[in-house]
Amino acid sequence: MARAQPATMKGRDTRERIIRATAELVTQRGVAGTSLDDVRARARVSKSQLYHYFVDRDDLMRAVAKAASDEVVGGQTELFAKLDTIQGLRAWADTLVTLQHARRSRGGCPIGSLAGQLAEHNENARGELVDGLDRWEAAIRDGLDRMAARGELRGDADCAALAQRVLAAVQGGLLLTQIRRDPDQLRSALNGVIEAILAAPAMP
Question: Domains in the chain, ordered, with CATH?
Fold first, then answer.
């Protein structure tokens, strides 16, 4: 069971510092290569402080998964608000591709990267990643629903299935981009799913 959120600002700041330090180490070394001693040194906290905020290593990794999910989904809030037009959908796709250019195609999706390391070993962390993907997919679906209401999609389009396909295209495109160091992999995946949306029939 996770610890309760700290009641004081100082406590919340310390907890967030530990999570940030852990996330940095995981990015550099992977989950398996990140020890609690490494975290304590990076975050400049004592062992008692670490266990005051987190039950154990699994609890800490769950918090890292939640933070990554919140960052990925929350960082797209303004773009999600404009997904009710084809132009808005293309602008969202352009932003994701531009970000990969800026990152030189390194890192992939934080949610996807953590999933590969945590999903089979930490059920609570997996749950946080599922929640992040669910919120991401729901935001896409909401945009498509609004697009359909505006008459920009065929009336028989299944927006729930389309949103799932969009998210799958994002995740697959990001993985190929990371492996091949080529943002055009994400571009191709997103262009393909956007074209499918424009001609989408009812889904089974």
Answer: 9-55 (1.10.10.60), 68-198 (1.10.357.10)
